[in-house]
Amino acid sequence: xxxxxxxxxxxxxxxxxxxxxxxxxxxxxxxxxxxxxxxxxxxxxxxxxxxxxxxxxxxxxxxxxxxxxxxxxxxxxxxxxxxxxxxxxxxxxxxxxxxxxxxxxxxxxxxxxxxxxxxxxxxxxxxxxxxxxxxxxxxxxxxxxxxxxxxxxxxxxxxxxxxxxxxxxxxxxxxxxxxxxxxxxxxxxxxxxxxxxxxxxxxxxxxxxxxxxxxxxxxxxxxxxxxxxxxxxxxxxxxxxxxxxxxxxxxxxxxxxxxxxxxxxxxxxxxxxxxxx
Length: 277
Ligand code: C2E
Ligand code: CA
Ligand code: CA
Ligand code: CA
Prior knowledge:
Number of helices: 13
Number of strands: 9
Helix content: 40-55%
Protein name: Diguanylate cyclase/phosphodiesterase
Organism: Sulfurimonas denitrificans (strain ATCC 33889 / DSM 1251) (Thiomicrospira denitrificans (strain ATCC 33889 / DSM 1251))
Structural class: alpha/beta
Order of helices and strands: HHEEEHHEHHEHHEHEHHEHEH
Domain EAL: 23-277
Bound molecules: ligand C2E, calcium ion
């Protein structure tokens, strides 16, 4: 069974490479995917480890390709960004994820804040804030229940336009989290300039906790930074009890990662949420 799985992987990888080679094929495949509803929202729970409660869900996209099967976002998001299709995809995600979370809230299922990943292209789009405020109204979700995750690289690269967009998003009542914190450029000055609510400690600093001395120092420093700037904090990619216990004892109590749950399909996530109430 193992070698079979490996072969399938190689086949899949080869297929993907062929697809990527033929950009027009991938592009038309992606366009069709939107029309044919081949995308699916997965949700990964975020947990307050002090009390073992769900504080939020991160929406993560999956592509169910009719022939190639499940395609992870790293295989198509960068391409979708290049050809500008990411705007449509991210808008679809936002609508779909928010509508689902609202359904759960109507069932009185506690799911906390919904986090959406927003690409640079989306944030540069002049109509994005208008889209957001319209969707919030259409769907009827409370903006206090919404958070966007933006990467540090994006902030540094697009600082001028991004500032006004982020301010407008914040004015809508949506909170803003810096994803992959610590992996972008070294300047921290944007933390002063921009309306940031939360830092997400990147998985690369969590991976070798609590053994790697450098990672220990970096994580402790980020925790102190967040505390001193009154920013919320979460760690991603937490896979082991050791990592969780270390982060909790150092004061980072919000945890996301396989230790609690991998990203889940809608019905799996509902079960998870019910178990955590
Ligand atoms: P990200 O935002 O940093 O998301 C975290 C990634 O780490 C996810 O991969 C998640 O499945 C994975 N992960 C979560 N917990 C663990 C863990 O404990 N261990 C390990 N090894 N991995 C963990 P995924 O779902 O493949 O997404 C990859 C990236 O694709 C995301 O990174 C995000 O940048 C992007 N992405 C996903 N969905 C969307 C979307 O709807 N829109 C945009 N623009 N980007 C998206
Ligand atoms: Ca993210
Ligand atoms: Ca991340
Ligand atoms: Ca990361």
